[in-house]
Protein backbone atom coordinates (compact mmCIF):
# COMPACT_ATOMS: atom_id res chain seq x y z
CA UNK A 1 0.00 0.00 0.00
CA UNK A 2 1.33 3.43 -0.93
CA UNK A 3 2.13 5.96 1.75
CA UNK A 4 -0.59 8.61 2.19
CA UNK A 5 0.24 12.27 1.74
CA UNK A 6 -0.34 12.95 5.45
CA UNK A 7 2.09 10.12 6.36
CA UNK A 8 4.65 11.51 3.91
CA UNK A 9 4.32 14.99 5.44
CA UNK A 10 4.81 13.56 8.95
CA UNK A 11 7.84 11.57 7.78
CA UNK A 12 9.47 14.68 6.27
CA UNK A 13 8.88 16.65 9.47
CA UNK A 14 10.36 13.86 11.61
CA UNK A 15 13.39 13.55 9.29
CA UNK A 16 14.05 17.32 9.42
CA UNK A 17 13.85 17.32 13.23
CA UNK A 18 16.18 14.31 13.50
CA UNK A 19 18.68 16.04 11.20
CA UNK A 20 19.04 18.93 13.66
CA UNK A 21 20.68 16.60 16.20
CA UNK A 22 19.29 18.23 19.35
CA UNK A 23 20.63 16.75 22.57
CA UNK A 24 19.64 16.85 26.22
CA UNK A 25 22.70 16.23 28.32
CA UNK A 26 24.63 13.48 26.54
CA UNK A 27 21.57 11.94 24.86
CA UNK A 28 19.95 12.76 21.55
CA UNK A 29 16.35 13.91 21.95
CA UNK A 30 14.26 11.34 20.04
CA UNK A 31 11.43 12.25 17.72
CA UNK A 32 8.39 10.00 17.34
CA UNK A 33 5.19 10.07 15.30
CA UNK A 34 1.93 9.69 17.22
CA UNK A 35 -1.70 10.72 16.83
CA UNK A 36 -1.45 12.79 20.01
CA UNK A 37 1.64 13.94 21.92
CA UNK A 38 1.37 11.30 24.59
CA UNK A 39 3.46 8.33 25.60
CA UNK A 40 2.22 4.77 25.22
CA UNK A 41 0.46 3.72 28.42
CA UNK A 42 2.93 2.75 31.11
CA UNK A 43 5.92 4.29 29.29
CA UNK A 44 7.74 6.71 31.63
CA UNK A 45 9.16 9.92 30.22
CA UNK A 46 12.86 9.47 30.95
CA UNK A 47 14.15 11.94 28.37
CA UNK A 48 12.50 14.78 26.45
CA UNK A 49 10.77 13.88 23.20
CA UNK A 50 9.67 15.63 20.04
CA UNK A 51 6.27 14.24 19.08
CA UNK A 52 5.12 14.71 15.48
CA UNK A 53 1.33 14.51 15.10
CA UNK A 54 -0.38 14.90 11.73
CA UNK A 55 -3.94 16.05 12.28
CA UNK A 56 -5.17 14.88 8.88
CA UNK A 57 -6.27 17.14 6.08
CA UNK A 58 -6.93 20.82 6.53
CA UNK A 59 -8.62 23.26 4.18
CA UNK A 60 -8.54 22.70 0.42
CA UNK A 61 -8.18 25.39 -2.24
CA UNK A 62 -9.30 24.42 -5.73
CA UNK A 63 -6.92 25.75 -8.37
CA UNK A 64 -8.74 24.47 -11.45
CA UNK A 65 -10.62 21.38 -12.60
CA UNK A 66 -7.47 19.23 -12.32
CA UNK A 67 -5.55 20.52 -9.30
CA UNK A 68 -6.10 21.53 -5.68
CA UNK A 69 -3.94 22.66 -2.79
CA UNK A 70 -4.57 20.67 0.38
CA UNK A 71 -3.24 21.77 3.76
CA UNK A 72 -1.82 19.26 6.27
CA UNK A 73 -1.47 20.65 9.83
CA UNK A 74 1.40 18.98 11.71
CA UNK A 75 1.92 19.56 15.43
CA UNK A 76 5.44 19.30 16.77
CA UNK A 77 5.18 18.98 20.53
CA UNK A 78 8.19 19.19 22.80
CA UNK A 79 7.47 17.04 25.86
CA UNK A 80 9.71 17.21 28.91
CA UNK A 81 9.28 15.71 32.36
CA UNK A 82 10.63 18.86 33.96
CA UNK A 83 10.82 22.51 33.12
CA UNK A 84 9.15 25.80 33.69
CA UNK A 85 5.51 24.87 33.05
CA UNK A 86 4.19 28.31 33.98
CA UNK A 87 7.11 30.37 32.65
CA UNK A 88 9.34 30.55 29.63
CA UNK A 89 11.85 27.69 29.51
CA UNK A 90 15.06 28.84 27.80
CA UNK A 91 16.03 25.34 26.63
CA UNK A 92 12.59 24.60 25.20
CA UNK A 93 12.56 28.04 23.55
CA UNK A 94 15.92 27.28 21.90
CA UNK A 95 14.63 23.91 20.66
CA UNK A 96 11.48 25.61 19.29
CA UNK A 97 13.65 28.09 17.40
CA UNK A 98 15.81 25.29 15.96
CA UNK A 99 12.77 23.28 14.88
CA UNK A 100 11.14 26.35 13.35
CA UNK A 101 14.30 27.14 11.39
CA UNK A 102 14.52 23.57 10.10
CA UNK A 103 10.87 23.25 9.08
CA UNK A 104 10.00 26.74 7.88
CA UNK A 105 11.91 26.14 4.66
CA UNK A 106 11.39 24.47 1.30
CA UNK A 107 14.52 22.36 1.87
CA UNK A 108 12.73 20.21 4.49
CA UNK A 109 10.15 19.16 1.91
CA UNK A 110 12.12 18.82 -1.34
CA UNK A 111 11.30 15.10 -1.56
CA UNK A 112 7.57 15.63 -0.93
CA UNK A 113 5.75 15.40 -4.28
CA UNK A 114 3.63 18.49 -4.94
CA UNK A 115 5.03 20.53 -2.04
CA UNK A 116 3.80 24.11 -2.32
CA UNK A 117 4.39 26.00 0.96
CA UNK A 118 4.74 25.73 4.73
CA UNK A 119 3.60 28.13 7.45
CA UNK A 120 4.07 28.04 11.22
CA UNK A 121 1.90 28.92 14.23
CA UNK A 122 2.16 28.32 17.97
CA UNK A 123 -1.14 26.61 18.64
CA UNK A 124 -2.28 23.11 19.43
CA UNK A 125 -4.73 21.27 17.13
CA UNK A 126 -5.85 19.17 20.09
CA UNK A 127 -7.09 19.75 23.64
CA UNK A 128 -3.92 20.24 25.72
CA UNK A 129 -5.93 20.06 28.96
CA UNK A 130 -6.25 16.29 28.39
CA UNK A 131 -2.47 15.82 28.59
CA UNK A 132 -0.74 14.77 31.85
CA UNK A 133 -0.27 17.76 34.15
CA UNK A 134 3.15 16.72 35.43
CA UNK A 135 4.88 17.20 32.06
CA UNK A 136 5.94 20.35 30.27
CA UNK A 137 4.55 20.80 26.74
CA UNK A 138 5.36 23.26 24.01
CA UNK A 139 3.46 22.99 20.73
CA UNK A 140 4.20 24.39 17.28
CA UNK A 141 1.97 23.75 14.28
CA UNK A 142 3.35 23.71 10.77
CA UNK A 143 0.80 23.71 7.97
CA UNK A 144 2.24 22.05 4.89
CA UNK A 145 0.48 22.75 1.57
CA UNK A 146 0.63 20.14 -1.18
CA UNK A 147 -0.65 20.44 -4.74
CA UNK A 148 -2.68 17.34 -5.55
CA UNK A 149 -4.77 16.07 -8.43
CA UNK A 150 -8.53 16.49 -8.15
CA UNK A 151 -10.42 13.25 -8.48
Describe this structure in a few short sentences.
The chain is an alpha+beta fold and 151 residues long. It contains two helices and eight strands; from the N terminus they run H-E-E-E-E-E-E-H-E-E. The radius of gyration is 16 Å and the shape is elongated.
Which SSEs are present, and which pair or pack?
Blueprint: H1 5-20, E1 23-24, E2 27-28, E3 31-33, E4 49-54, E5 60-62, E6 67-80, H2 90-103, E7 115-121, E8 136-149
Parallel strand pairs: 3-4
Antiparallel strand pairs: 1-2, 4-6, 5-6, 6-8, 7-8
Explain how this protein is built.
Strands 3, 4, 5, 6, 7 and 8 form a six-stranded mixed β-sheet that branches. The protein has a two-stranded antiparallel sheet with strand order 1-2. The model has no long low-confidence stretch (mean pLDDT 84). β1 and β2 (27-28) form a beta hairpin. The protein starts with a helix and ends with a strand. The chain is elongated, with a radius of gyration of 16 Å. It is built from two helices and eight strands, in the order αββββββαββ. The longest helix is centred in the N-terminal third of the chain and has 16 residues, at 5-20. α1 packs across α2 (90-103). It has one domain: STM4215-like (2-Layer Sandwich). The chain has helices at residues 5-20, 90-103; strands at residues 23-24, 27-28, 31-33, 49-54, 60-62, 67-80, 115-121, 136-149. With 151 residues, it is α+β, with helices and mostly antiparallel strands.
